[in-house]
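Page 42, continued from yesterday. The earlier attempt failed because a stray header line got pasted into the input along with the sequence. Redoing it now with the clean sequence only.
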Amino acid sequence: MSDTDKLRILLAEDEDAMRTYLERALEKAGYDVKAVDRGTAAIPLLESERFDLLLSDIVMPEMDGIELAQRCNEISPRTKVMFITGFAAVSLKASREQPQAKVLSKPFHLRDLVMEVDRIFEGEATASL
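This time it went through. Structure tokens are written below.
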């Protein structure tokens, strides 16, 4: 698979260590990842580039992940959304407000994250056949 064929993920995670950890794991799994530390930094990227998936923490400064997902739906409706969170109550709110988005609760194993991301794109590959 060439770099142009790689699925592109926009990662929005305010915690530095977690962002680096997730970015490395997804790149190792073969994805093209662009990482930002806040939702407000993700918006211009969504406007100027194509992403297959927005992977966002829900609780972030300036703009939370749910608001970012709503903006993403307006700017780039084909981009799928997946949330990561350490807060169960926030996870329920995300499921209500973005029912099509997958929510992965922290702590999770990197293998589980990669599996869920793969699953999102597998569904898309079979839907386009």
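Notes: Strands lie at 8-12, 32-36, 53-57, 80-85, 102-105.
Reminder to self: strip header lines before submitting.
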